[in-house]
């Protein structure tokens, strides 16, 4: 670790601590109280500073970055309201188990008591979406507090750490000394008892689901999990939402628990025991009158192979050893032949089938297709191998920012953002950052011009068909959103298409050229 | 009060309680957990439901509505992340002393413990920006809890009340009974001692500032305050930010405490005593190295005529009586002759001078001009009488939503939204609601293509001139924001201008026609 020269400020100490602990990307939306930190960043060209024009872009990008880079970015947010604007996507990051270090500016320590107009309780705002929150008390505490924040963020499986930086702590001089090193605890080791209990369960002949999430959904551990499933007759399944999954042709076929409650209950019907691999017992996304909150049959036995903070790769390896699975037991890999291209008017299905067909190898798919993409896994069977990064916490407005982070983390790979129109509006400012940073992202807007999911939900809750007031709250067709103009206004080239043939042409062009491009897929009704 | 038929749900009881207490505008961004409330709203055509495509639009519109209507609207927000997205503008509403009733959906009471993906601690999120928070425990408590929320919101000077509505409380049947009536406490009566102390101070010949805010800034009480100032030799001043001020030709001339710390200290230098009329002791917006947090001379005496929850109109009337001000003492009214129209390239000054010159009578000006509008009061001296609604809490992204609420509250009046470009990006989705509701709003984007305020702040904190990383975080010119395309994409007609002459033409047209229009005023550098 490099020593901090004695004349540096708290802001410099923070930059040095971040850089020396491997954090060199800062997604930022600063304000006055962060100006000394901005000045310190300005002295550190090694730090890549990326501006978002809204804080939800910043936090969502940090989520996408860490999902792909396997290390956190830092966010820079302006006081309580700036943090508040970023909370929805921190909620998603929290549910994705993504490591994020937030730096939130605060008034100078002596200024807080005057309750100036921008004053609010930042710690209280941070707490619901953070695993770790601390306000730095003095310039000389910056480096060690920042190291603690990094350690908290990076402890398995990944956490949200929010470090509040008062302006005077930022501009104040430090006494110097060494930059603190983050003491990141290793993930928990699997428990032998848990491994043996899981092995026994997998040998007892009962109808079993192996439910995986987190690092168990990378290609290699999925192969182990699939071999365990193949050998034991169990069914391998992923959680409903997961931070990242490696899937596609030549990789393990793994479905996810359906979003729809009835579909999930049907899917899990008859399950006698479930083996949790870093996952949680599946529950309904929402409650509905007369429907249960839990999705498993009431008598289903829960067997936890590994808690979320465990080394899941090691746990699966150990379980495979314990079961003495022969080398001849192969994982169930996706060898589905590529589907024929559809034709005619674009629908959600034909858009997604076409996209799967035309995906370049090792693309990164950021998915917020919401109601249009419920069957995405089935429709993209046999697509080239890719990383799949879905929205995880249900706080819409993640897709576009997520694609920024993924593209920054993986400059050599094409990022495809599959974005529902209604949800995309929450953080459309992300397109500007795509353009500014020349990021290699193809955004496909699934444009059905309504909160289609809510029309469905209105029916599901038994509330009937939408009348005038309900339509005024659920339809987006008056006026229609002009995504091509919106993208152009934010510096991103774009085209609208409404047939598969036109989509194929534009998508082919967009996949070949570098830099951002947006395609509005105008979907036929129904 | 109408009885609730016994078969109605909690959601119906909520609608009935809102309507029967005079709340008939709902700014909404609902989700699944609010579908029964949406269904109930659908049965109540008397409630005007207005969709925002992002929650900051919803809460900012509710702020603008109540500032002009003098009664609250209700917001409808989806769970914790939906509330979080609305917090920044609730922060502004809180600082504006605006009454707002938020209805935030929550999972069914029995579902919360399962920690489904969208679960978060809604009460904790609400608390920092709310004066009153309650989760409704049962369907039969809906009406009385809603009445309590309305009473809390409407108690002087205006508060944020957040009512959390679990899905099962919403869909559950009530036993019926009467709709609760909100028990709104009257504002506090002025204290005779305080009035006499203020009168004595105003007679002692010391250099005095009368600092007013809230309802004291309407035309009539301002005349009283101005007469008091004229009679006593005091200077009448408004707080730096206030929810609403009635100003313009024929109304009292009243300046506000400058935003800039040095300017404010200069402006208040020599003040020996300050009389607070619902206002707070002025403090610096931000702390800066070596500069004080307070703006008044250290020896300045504080005399509180009336606390914020007091009837300020009554307090001023009483003070005028106590001082026995003769009828011949006239208020200092604005009789400034209209300025000549500037010419040539648009600057912040020429844009605002022109706008002031061309304002229709009784327009409503929603101001988030930020750095471009620091001298707006000087530049619009002599403009036709108008209401002035500025950003109050420093959480940028209020201007466009605020204009929605003002236009909904005052359908016969032209609303002018003066919006800085960087700040406008936080909630640009508001333009779509302007179009959908055909609101009579002219938006003027002050386009300087940078966070100009932050370049200034970077210099002010002594951090020097922006280098590469700082410019990457403070400049908005790569790519330039295309506001005309953005507006068109959201259904609003628009034009860009860069000379006064072109601005005059387009503004004249936009002022004459009904419905929304956006003008991007591309400002010359410097």
List keywords for this structure.
homodimer, 526 residues, alpha/beta, Rossmann fold, 3 domains, 7-stranded mixed sheet, 6-stranded parallel sheet, 37% helix, globular, thiamine pyrophosphate binding (chains A, B), acetolactate synthase activity (chains A, B), TPP_enz (chains A, B), thiamine pyrophosphate (chains A, B)
Q: What would your notes on this structure say?
A:
Two copies of one chain form a homodimer. A seven-stranded mixed β-sheet of chain A has the order 11-16-15-17-18-20-19, sandwiched between helices. The longest helix of chain A has 17 residues, at about 80-95. In chain A, helix 3 (about 55-70) runs parallel beside helix 4 and helix 8 crosses helix 11 (about 310-320). Chain A has three domains: about 5-180, 3-Layer(aba) Sandwich (Rossmann fold); about 190-320, 3-Layer(aba) Sandwich (Rossmann fold); about 350-520, Thiamin diphosphate (ThDP)-binding fold, Pyr/PP domains (Rossmann fold, 3-Layer(aba) Sandwich), CATH 3.40.50. In chain A, about 35% of the residues lie in helices and about 20% in strands. Chain A has helices at about 10-20, 35-40, 55-70, 80-95, 120-125, 140-155, 165-170, 190-205, 220-230, 260-270, 310-320, 350-360, 375-380, 400-410, 420-425, 430-435, 450-460, 470-475, 485-490, 500-510, and strands spanning about 5, 25-30, 50, 75, 100-105, 130-135, 160-165, 175-180, 210, 235-240, 245, 255, 275, 300-305, 365-370, 385-390, 415-420, 440-445, 495, 515-520. Chain A is of the alpha/beta class. Chain A is globular. The first copy, chain A, contains 20 helices and 20 strands. In chain A, helix 13 links the parallel strand 15 (about 365-370) and strand 16. At the A-B interface, helix 2, strand 3, helix 4, helix 7 and helix 16 of A face helix 2, strand 3, helix 4, helix 7 and helix 16 of B.
